[in-house]
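If it is no trouble, might I ask you for a protein's amino acid sequence along with its backbone structure tokens?
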Amino acid sequence: MEIWINPACSKCRSALTLLDEEGVQHTVRRYLDDPPTVDELRAVLDRLGLEPWDITRTGEAIGKELGISDWPREPAERERWIAALSEHPKLIQRPIITAHDGSAVVGRSEEAVREAMRRSG
């Protein structure tokens, strides 16, 4: 299991605390320091079953600067969104947890983190 975090994020810290309390082995990826590639983003989106606009923090300053909230949310624009997430990882919703069954969740709630743990066995 891997968890993508921003250490300044309270939801990330809560998710890490829960994983640690439950003794779940995990790898931490500080995605602002180690941004995901376009291919990694495509893979995690497939695992999440979501589109890039579903995991984009449009309220971030860089998002406003890019005008990303006005970008079309359609298949033809998917790669544009993914490229923006890769170039500006601060736009990525967090934490993202990949489970051992090949799925992933956005772990913003205790329930979502527990679901990732369940999926990981």
